[in-house]
Design brief:
By secondary structure, this protein is α/β, with parallel strands linked by helices. 41% of the residues lie in helices and 22% in strands. The structure holds nicotinamide-adenine-dinucleotide, 3-isopropylmalic acid (IPM) and manganese (II) ion. Nicotinamide-adenine-dinucleotide binds next to helix 4.
Length: 358
């Protein structure tokens, strides 16, 4: 009897271009199960997001996390709608899942694939992995608004850096680097953030002593932004806080070919809860509904998802298919300088998979 490997995926297409790009990611996964009959994906789709909020007053049901808990992984499109305040939509769904499921590692690979144009003059060596702290830091949601509307109004937004939270993300980055023979760069701001980032630097220094074989250095976040553009080859594994990682990932996206190319995984390494996979980009209301969104970021996130589920070979094959489609000019949405469509790109990746592996 043939042994099937079955994966239950909870799908939240979300808002704007979310559903458009997720559809292509699912197409690619279905193509894989068509080629490899031993793999089977069971998708269950949830209509949560801003439309849902406008109808029911919340982004997902109160027991949403309980529902999602039973899946092997979550595949998310994007969240955000001009009709609803962003802090409500994002806190009510995306951040709730990341924090509720202790997905404290946000892994964002930045790799300029062959065939994809970059805004950089000499972009050959863009290949880094951003390891962003994803559960606390500046995004802990901790603060206060005092005397609202009064003249003496004050707001506080507190960065939360626990010893456990800081240590585990830095350790994760070192372990990842050790596996691939890479170096680790910490992006910090210890010169101005005299509590949080001084603490971060101390922990980085301590953890680095446990990895004498892994080259380690620290760069200030502002200088790192400059260097990512001028000398991206300086970066291999990058570890940083939640907010810095958010900003640095968009620079990464840009040098890797644009927002349409940037994928991300929100990982709970202990596998106590499901991990969540999504493109780095948002709902892109400016192009939603036009068929112009580049689905590669979402397809790449699907490849990260199956890697995490244990299908490393297929994960690599998806990337190879994206790359060979790119080399032939078939990643052709307008962001990459073409006139192609979201669906066209999804189909091109499926075609490459079938051509190479069917
Ligand atoms: P965005 O990433 O949605 O868009 C930024 C720019 O990049 C836009 O010009 C957009 O057209 C372009 N772009 C993004 N993805 C693309 C793709 N796949 N193909 C081609 N072009 C693409 O960021 P924004 O405009 O700052 O935010 C829009 C909304 O999304 C806001 O509500 C924001 O809060 C939300 N957001 C959500 C997430 C998420 O769900 N993970 C991430 C970022 C922003
Ligand atoms: C991202 C997004 C989110 C973040 C927002 C939408 C809350 O920008 O995933 O990069 O900052 O984490
Ligand atoms: Mn972001």
């Amino acid at each position: 009897m043939r042994i099937m490997r079955e994966y239950k995926i909870g799908v939240i297409p979300g808002d704007g271009i979310g559903p458009e790009v997720i559809k292509e990611g699912i197409k690619v996964l279905e193509k894989i199960s068509e080629i490899d009959r031993e793999i089977c994906f069971r998708f269950e789709t949830f209509p949560w997001g801003s439309e849902y909020y406008l109808q029911y007053g919340r982004m997902m049901p109160d027991d949403g996390l309980e529902t999602l808990k039973h899946f092997d992984a979550i595949y998310l499109g994007a969240v955000g709608d001009p009709r609803v305040r962003d802090d409500i939509t994002l806190r009510g769904l995306l951040l709730k899942i990341r924090q509720g499921f202790d997905q404290y590692v946000n892994l964002r690979p930045v790799k300029l694939l062959e065939g994809i144009p970059s805004p950089l003059r000499d972009p050959r060596k863009v290949d880094m992995l951003i390891v962003r702290e994803n559960s606390e830091g500046e995004y802990a949601g901790c603060g206060e608004r005092l005397f609202p509307g009064k003249e003496n109004e004050v707001v506080l937004q507190t960065g939360v850096f626990s010893k456990k939270g800081t240590e585990r993300i830095i350790r994760y980055a070192f372990e990842k680097a050790r596996k691939t023979g890479a170096g680790v760069t910490s992006l910090s701001k210890g010169n101005a953030l005299n509590y949080s980032m001084v603490f971060w630097d101390e922990i980085f220094e301590q953890v680095s002593r446990d990895f004498p074989d892994v080259p380690a250095k620290t760069i200030l976040i502002d200088a790192a932004c400059m260097m990512a553009v001028m000398r991206p080859e300086e970066f291999q594994v990058v570890v940083t806080s939640n907010l810095f990682g958010d900003i640095f990932s968009d620079i990464g996206a840009a040098i890797g070919g644009g927002m349409g190319m940037a994928a991300g995984a929100n990982i709970n390494p202990e596998r106590k809860y499901p991990s969540m996979f999504e493109p780095v980009h948002g709902s892109a209301p400016d192009i939603a509904g036009t068929g112009k969104a580049n689905p590669v970021a979402a397809i790449w996130a699907a490849s990260q998802m199956i890697e995490f589920l244990g299908e490393e070979k297929w994960s690599r094959k998806i990337l190879a298919a994206i790359e060979s489609a790119a080399v032939q000019g078939m990643i052709s949405t307008p962001d990459i300088g073409g006139t192609g469509s979201t669906e066209g790109v999804g189909e091109a990746v499926c075609r490459e998979l079938a051509k190479k592996y069917l």
